[in-house]
Amino acid sequence: SFNGILMGKPLIKEEHQCVCEGSSCVTGRRCMGHQCFSSLTVSGSSQVYQKGCFKVYEQSTLTCKTPPSREQIVECCHGHLCNMNSTVQLPVKGTSRLPRMHLKHSLRCGCISCVKEFLLRIHTNQMERLTSRDAEYGTIDGLIASNVGESTLADLLDHSCTSGSGSGLPFLVQRTVARQITLNECVGKGRYGEVWRGQWQGESVAVKIFSSRDEKSWFRETEIYNSVLLRHENILGFIASDMTSRNSSTQLWLITHFHEMGSLYDYLQLSTLDASGCLRMALSIASGVAHLHVEIFGTQGKPAIAHRDLKSKNILVKKNGQCCIADLGLAVMHFQDTNELDVGNNPKVGTKRYMAPEVLDDSIQMDCFESFKRVDIWALGLVLWEIARRTVSNGIVEDYKPPFHDVVPTDPSFEDMKKVVCVDQQRPNIPNRWFSDPTLTSMAKLMKECWYQNPSARLTALRIKKTLTKIDNSLDKIKTDI
């Protein structure tokens, strides 16, 4: 049960065969999953029936907990082919119970392929949809609920955040979660739009509402989160994406886990760290980047992904002192088997302050995926520098400052950054006090190896992760010896 999960009882691990019926059940009329479902959705004047399975148990928890509406009902069951004879019908006006009837219409539909089909429609029609003034809420196929990541939603997934696991939800929860979210308070504003703390069934969620000028970032994040099996404790957990018209204006929502500590940028303004806290943060960020960068093969796999806008404002701090990486609006994907590089359709570039030399002087090889990974490593080195400055050693700590604060203006231009980084080849200053602390000395060496002018000389994310783990282990040994 849902309550059982919240109280730490184990998830049901065994899989069962389910009936799969819908527009694109690519694996035939059967699928394997933790739970089976039957659903009915009203789309315009037609009724769409579907059957299928939930690959990841916690996804069924989110879906099955969502009560039926006049437009949609999802019924779940657990057991071998338990949805074979199940029947669903939308509530009749004035009744609270759900009468049943046999499904006379069925369309075959598979989880991931249906989502891809949906996304293809979005990309084909996005400009028409965004300019359509008479689109009403519900006429846009708005919600895809997908990977529910590691925490929030009452710590649902604390015990299931293993690297590389996860699966997109079937295309059947459209709009329901988004409709039930109450926006409580705005917790952030920027060029991208706004971030709100919302509530869904008593649990906090974050709702990023994109500005119309940043619609391509919304499309890209929606696409990646729904077509990639991306779930990791150091990647922001995705819940749903919603595109709808409200009061004659289109709103683009990205619904994710809520982390009350806010961004790393905000956190470092007010808080200092000890060596242990510094390493916990640094290692968690490196782990998140390493997970993005690696391609995992197999049914629970993922393509390699480069972030392209890594910075302290795009990293969130969790209650346990670790961090998770957010904002995949500029990400690129690479598929090794076909050597396909998917750069998306977003003309935006990264944040100038964090740009690597090869981006600033336009020498980057845009057709080579390794180039994008090396750009992430440059930025990761700058983030490590920001964290290290706020780490206390011998009672001393620096005020928070962004990278290159002492050599460029508050809002530096492309040319400002190019002169400092490419022409003068300057790097952030390493304070002398760091060299009397073994942790900060090791961190300084590490970040310098992220900042080589030659991109191919920089460390990989996996090497950074392994090095930080060694530093962490040596710190533990010092503590034990004391």
From TrEMBL:
<dbReference type="InterPro" id="IPR008271">
    <property type="entry name" value="Ser/Thr_kinase_AS"/>
</dbReference>
<protein>
    <recommendedName>
        <fullName>Activin receptor type-1</fullName>
        <ecNumber>2.7.11.30</ecNumber>
    </recommendedName>
</protein>
<keyword id="KW-0472">Membrane</keyword>
<dbReference type="GO" id="GO:0007507">
    <property type="term" value="P:heart development"/>
</dbReference>
<dbReference type="GO" id="GO:0004675">
    <property type="term" value="F:transmembrane receptor protein serine/threonine kinase activity"/>
</dbReference>
<dbReference type="InterPro" id="IPR011009">
    <property type="entry name" value="Kinase-like_dom_sf"/>
</dbReference>
<keyword id="KW-0547">Nucleotide-binding</keyword>
<keyword id="KW-0808">Transferase</keyword>
<keyword id="KW-0460">Magnesium</keyword>
<comment type="similarity">
    <text>Belongs to the protein kinase superfamily. TKL Ser/Thr protein kinase family. TGFB receptor subfamily.</text>
</comment>
<keyword id="KW-0067">ATP-binding</keyword>
<dbReference type="InterPro" id="IPR000472">
    <property type="entry name" value="Activin_recp"/>
</dbReference>
<dbReference type="InterPro" id="IPR045860">
    <property type="entry name" value="Snake_toxin-like_sf"/>
</dbReference>
<keyword id="KW-0723">Serine/threonine-protein kinase</keyword>
<dbReference type="Pfam" id="PF08515">
    <property type="entry name" value="TGF_beta_GS"/>
</dbReference>
<keyword id="KW-0418">Kinase</keyword>
<dbReference type="InterPro" id="IPR017441">
    <property type="entry name" value="Protein_kinase_ATP_BS"/>
</dbReference>
<dbReference type="Pfam" id="PF07714">
    <property type="entry name" value="PK_Tyr_Ser-Thr"/>
</dbReference>
<keyword id="KW-0675">Receptor</keyword>
<feature type="domain" description="GS">
    <location>
        <begin position="151"/>
        <end position="180"/>
    </location>
</feature>
<dbReference type="Pfam" id="PF01064">
    <property type="entry name" value="Activin_recp"/>
</dbReference>
<keyword id="KW-0464">Manganese</keyword>
<dbReference type="InterPro" id="IPR001245">
    <property type="entry name" value="Ser-Thr/Tyr_kinase_cat_dom"/>
</dbReference>
<dbReference type="GO" id="GO:0007179">
    <property type="term" value="P:transforming growth factor beta receptor signaling pathway"/>
</dbReference>
<feature type="domain" description="Protein kinase">
    <location>
        <begin position="181"/>
        <end position="475"/>
    </location>
</feature>
<keyword id="KW-1133">Transmembrane helix</keyword>
<dbReference type="InterPro" id="IPR000719">
    <property type="entry name" value="Prot_kinase_dom"/>
</dbReference>
<dbReference type="InterPro" id="IPR003605">
    <property type="entry name" value="GS_dom"/>
</dbReference>
<dbReference type="GO" id="GO:0070724">
    <property type="term" value="C:BMP receptor complex"/>
</dbReference>
<feature type="binding site">
    <location>
        <position position="208"/>
    </location>
    <ligand>
        <name>ATP</name>
    </ligand>
</feature>
<keyword id="KW-0812">Transmembrane</keyword>
<keyword id="KW-0479">Metal-binding</keyword>
<keyword id="KW-0732">Signal</keyword>
<keyword id="KW-0325">Glycoprotein</keyword>
<dbReference type="GO" id="GO:0005524">
    <property type="term" value="F:ATP binding"/>
</dbReference>
<dbReference type="GO" id="GO:0046872">
    <property type="term" value="F:metal ion binding"/>
</dbReference>
<dbReference type="InterPro" id="IPR000333">
    <property type="entry name" value="TGFB_receptor"/>
</dbReference>
